Amino acid sequence: TVWAIDWPGNRDNTAAAEKSQKAQMIEILDRYKAANMNVCFFQVRGFSDAFYNSEYEPWSKYLCGERGKAPNYDPFQFVIDECHKRGIECHAWINPYRYESVSNQWDGTPQCYRETNPEWMLDVDGATILNPGIPEVTDQIVKVIREIVQNYDVDGILFDDYFYLSGTPKDSTGDGDLYEAYKAAGGNLSHNDWRRENVNNMVAAVYNM
After folding, report:
1. Can you tell me whether residue 193 is helix, strand or coil?
2. How many CB atoms lie within 10 A of CB 151?
3. Strand partners, 50
């Protein structure tokens, strides 16, 4: 669903768009069933946004053409129901860290983390992720996924792009200050291993939740 690469083709919140989106998804799932597939990975969070009703994230731009613009139905619930009708599991595909592919692209949109939590932003070569070295970022990701598993009959959670952007600097323009604070508190991991452990801690926190 990110950039609407595969779905949906018609992006609006009109009755006609809803009908078109549902018909397109049914066609996709019918192809899955005909190919004897038994699992669908449905991307519900590509840019710290949502293809489902969320307290924490705005509706995805790639659903109705505008970030924060609500559809007239719950796409995720629809996909889950249609998957289960066909004996297909539905797993929520989540990009836990990705925020922007172009810096400041979500400025002025609802629930903009750059405005509410600018310290979470880790900008690298024009793209932005949520900084894995900040414990509050992990807490937010756990909240987001708790909401999904509590509110939807989802069969699994799939992570994609759960890493630092290639080339993330290790000085004060990147995460150098966080790493120095970690060392000052007695940490003894190398910078690279500290980054890996930040990601490990996020995955473990989600698993434990």
Report:
1. helix
2. 15
3. 59
Q: Is 175 exposed, middle or buried (0-12, 13-18, 19+ CB in 10 A)?
A: buried
Q: Decide if 110 contacts 47 (C-beta within 8 A).
A: no
Is the confidence at residue 144, as pLDDT, over 90? yes
Angstrom distance (rounded) from CA 55 to CA 59: 10
Question: 186-197, pLDDT tens digit by residue?
Answer: 999 999 999 999
Q: Which two tokens stand for residue 16?
A: 């006609």
> Rounded to an integer, what distance in angstroms lies between the CA atom of residue 63 and that of residue 18?
10
Q: Report the distance separating Cα 204 and Cα 209, nearest Å.
A: 8
Structure tokens at 189: 């991991």
* Residue where the block lists tokens 């989106």: 21
Residue 12 has pLDDT above 90, yes or no: no
Per DSSP, the three-state class of 188 is coil
Helix (H, G, I), strand (E, B) or coil at 138: helix
Average pLDDT over residues 23-29: 97
DSSP 60: P
pLDDT at residue number 116: 96
- Torsion of the alpha carbons at 136, 137, 138 and 141, rounded to the nearest 10: 120
Residue with tokens 């793209």: 127
The CA-based angle 112-3-207, given to 5 degrees, is 65
Confidence of residue 11 (pLDDT cuts 50, 70, 90): confident
Residue type, 201: N
Q: Are 144 and 56 in contact (CB under 8 A)?
A: yes
